[in-house]
Amino acid sequence: MINTLLVVEDEEQLRKMLVQHLEADGFRVLTASDGQEAVEAYRNFGPDLVILDIMLPLIPGMEVLKKIRSVDNTPVIILTARGDEIDRLLGLELGADDYMSKPFSPRELSARVRAVLRRSRGGDDKVPNQVKGLSVDLLRQEVMLKDQLLSLTTTEFKIIALLSEHPGQVFSRLQILERIYGDIYEGYERTIDTHINNLRRKMEANGDTGIKVKTVYGAGYKLVEEGSSNV
Ligand code: CA
Predict the structure, then answer these.
(1) How many A from CA of 89 to the centre of ligand 1?
(2) How far is the CA of 14 from the centre of ligand 1 (A)?
(3) What is the rounded CA–CA span in Å between residue 72 and residue 38?
(4) Does residue 138 sit in the same domain as residue 96?
(5) Å from CA of 70 to ligand 1 middle
(6) Fewer CB atoms < 10 Å away: N or C end of the chain?
(7) Ligand 1 midpoint to CA 9 (Å)
(8) Distance (Å, rounded) from C-alpha 6 to C-alpha 87?
(9) 53-103 pLDDT per residue, tens
(10) pLDDT score of 185
(11) Which DSSP state fits 219?
């Protein structure tokens, strides 16, 4: 099945680049360059997923998102300015399924599109968290491990949020870096190890919970729950 995506972005160059990459990845892509067009395209074509820039002419992205949510649960990934936490949080609160901070890599966007589509098809439209005893609250940026609130840095939070989306799946250092910093990762792969070690220390501070970040030699890291099929 070919999925149809609606890409809403007013910056022409970025829009074209996204279309090119997403089409090459096998998606059918519709575009809109302002909020008004976005609402019309959404009504007329019923895309499977919307990639929505927040800063848009005519109708702001948040309003477009509200209009979509007033109709149905079609997955929406919002595009926010780098470091604009307010937009990100507001977007998630209004029902966006995921977000990308600019600048980001188109490869990462494709991966997120696939993940969000998979999730929405599973009928499980909020961030799934299949590890029992671990809860990751994206809005509050809080992690509870066996009823203990972990005090994490933003980077540590992003790492555990990523790993917990797919327990048992291995993420390479590069994938983790892309998620944390967008496209800027050259030469920083090893810094991930330090963040992971700090994260582990905090996770183990109150004893062994059985929930661990495991190193997979030559591949990366994964989140495991001992005694479950996620190992
Ligand atoms: Ca824009």
Answers:
(1) 18
(2) 9
(3) 15
(4) no
(5) 23
(6) N
(7) 6
(8) 20
(9) 999 999 999 999 999 988 888 999 999 987 778 888 889 889 999 999 998
(10) 57
(11) T
